[in-house]
Amino acid sequence: MSQLYIASSITTFEEPPSAELFDDNVSVTQLYQHIMAFVFAVEEINENPYILPNVTLGCHIYNSHFTAGWTYHASVELLSGRGRLTPNYKCDGESTPVAAVGGPNSDLCLYMSAVLSMYKMPQLIYGSSPVTNSNIQGAFLHQMFPKGSHQYKGILQLLLHFRWIWIGVLFLEDDTGEMFVQNVLPMFAERGICVAFQETFPKLTFSSEFYETLEEYSKALDIIMESTANVVLVNGEIHTMMVMRAMLKLQGTDDIPMQSKTKVWVMTAQMDFASCSFVKYLDVQVFHGALSFAVHSKEIPGFQKFLQMRNPNLEVEDGFIRDFWEAAFECVFPHPSLEKAHNKCCTGEEKLEDLPASVFEMKTSSHSYAIYNALYALAHALNAMHHHTIKYRAMAEEEKWDFLSLHSWQLHKILRRVSFNNSVGGKVSLDQNGELITGFDIINWVVLPNESFIRVKVGAMDTQVASEEGFSLDYDAIVWPNRFNQSRPASLCNQNCHFGYSRAKKEGKPSCCYDCLPCSEGKISNKEDMDDCFQCPQDHYPNNAQDGCLPKKITFLSYGEPLGISLATFALSFSITTAWVLWIFVEHQDTPIVKANNRNLTYTLLISLLLSFFCALLFIGQPEKVTCLIRQIAFGMIFSLVVSCILAKTTLVTLAFMATRPGSKYRTWVGGKLSNSIILSCTLTQSAICCVWLATSPPFPDLDMHSMTTEILLECNEGSTVMFYCVLGFMSLLAFGSFIVAFLARKLPDSFNEAKFITFSMLVFCSVWLSFVPTYLSTKGKYMVAVEIFSILASGSGLLGCIFSPKCYVILLRPELNRRQVLIRRENQRIN
Predict the structure, then answer these.
(1) What's the CATH class of domain 16-146+301-429?
(2) Entry pTM
(3) What dihedral angle (degrees, nearest 10) is formed by the CA atoms of 794, 797, 799, 805?
(4) Cβ atoms of residues 100 and 122 within 8 Å
(5) What is the pLDDT of residues 495-520, one digit of tens each?
């Protein structure tokens, strides 16, 4: 174990070596508890009649001084016999060790293992596990520490839980630190955690180098404290805390107190609070609110009472207690060789419980708990071997167990499968790899005003289940550093991208550093830091903030809205007007102006116009299966009938005047047969197109979710757009033909024909439907239906007004002109 740190001055060979064995003897007061846990466990096992009956355990405790040389020395002496160092020669048969417990630093365990593994001696490691390059060394190590990967998965869960994705890293510059950087940090990167900086702890060897080494790291400390990363992961060991305190003290100034720049320190379970004389008075407030992992532990019954009973005046065999006592209570034991000084004298009556936790803790630490379990694991392994040996030798009527003839290598297999419940009810088991099967506690450090601190358990991690399920945390119990005002600290490269924004990578920066760009039109983001915005479901649309979706309203051109009411009113008005014109023509059917140009054809045209206005009403209201099938077909058929009637009228006017010439062969064409043939052929052709449309791809009710942003349009899907435009195309062809014929006949006498009016009416008709196509294609939703209704009403009213308004004017207002004699006289005057 390491209780005293011997700091030697560097040898420069420029002056004679010092006569002193060492320069400075520094006591690490917290580690005295490890020694006490070891002694307490040995005494408790010896008093237990059920473990190793009639066998008394003894122990040697060596101080490694945190150096390789003293560790090698202690390991060789352990094999040579107490008090004598004879390498590879055992001259003391009464103090044969069967196992060694070592720690808490990984490098010291590695030095110990280099010697003891050659003799196949079991070594139980209670602190950091060494990185061994030899399978032989690793075979004799039994770690009272869970598998390291479990802890790092727990740290990863902690970082992800608080969304700390921008962190700093401090690690030791040794094999364990190198393994941490190579194996653990890439695992963090895979889960989206970026490292703002990586800095190493100085490796201290000589006391004269201490402050010089720390000053070399002043630049690194500037990086740490000025970094935007508010969380720093510290992968260190038990002595790391002393180095951290010294480093942070150098960084703090009177103008800028350290508390104003402190970080949330996340520390690994290998670390623990440790202090010595030269950092004893340094402020511990910088660790207020820190989080650390610790191997799961419980309070050992009777251990605190055992500590309270320690007295340096009575403990003769304890070679550590006086050094510890003087360092902890800042006093000096009287000694005849020392002159009287102003130093406070130690009485031995001082109370350990009066010491602040920054000097010594009465509560069992996780390292002390691991030492306690290590001793019991050895005892249970020896007990199992004891029973096996007695059972074997009972068959030979020899029940004596020759403990001194025990070979230590025989304990390995038993230790690999040892399992027992300790005195606090905790189960202790080692797996086949020699690693402890247990979980971790998550500890929150709360520093008190008197420079003491308490460790508050705020979470746990069960390593026997999946990391996500085994991780638990009491968020409300956590105390954060004072600078964060008890709010959860954020540790980000930049602020989160809020709802309605997505992340965009910054060139040359880690993935955690990004710009926030607003979502493009039609997309949303409803979480922070989304990589991409996404579309709402088809029946929803983005809100104005683009952070959520709102349900679309189902809409259609209804009779209840102003547009529908207006169009329906116009359709009914034109229908009434057309019916009135038809009534006028029927009432005056014997007048010349009505009889001119085929009276029956005029009636057919008016009736078809009346039907066309009624047809517009089919486009208003909720689309149903029947109305969708009927309305476009009815529209095409009726307007084909209208245009074919106009074509027939125009053709008859032209042939009538051509037939008046003497000997004209066109007289046989003038009559009802021609007009009926034109109307019938055109209507049948359009009917054939409509039948093909209905047979192949008929119209049907449909929901258009894409045309309108905030609405779902309930519409009639045309089924086949090609067939729809074929219907329009044929109607346009008839209209164009009627216009050409009427245009050619426009100079015929006005008294006998209506070619001029038909020409103008067809000009209006063609203009309406030519403008319909681009307008229809450029509008969306129910307004497409409104455009078609408007085109139907506009073209029908244009035909009605241009063709029949002059005739109605004559019939109603100038009846004197509607007589045969007047028409003949006017015609004779024009001829003359």
Answers:
(1) alpha beta
(2) 0.70
(3) -150
(4) yes
(5) 888 999 998 988 888 888 889 999 99
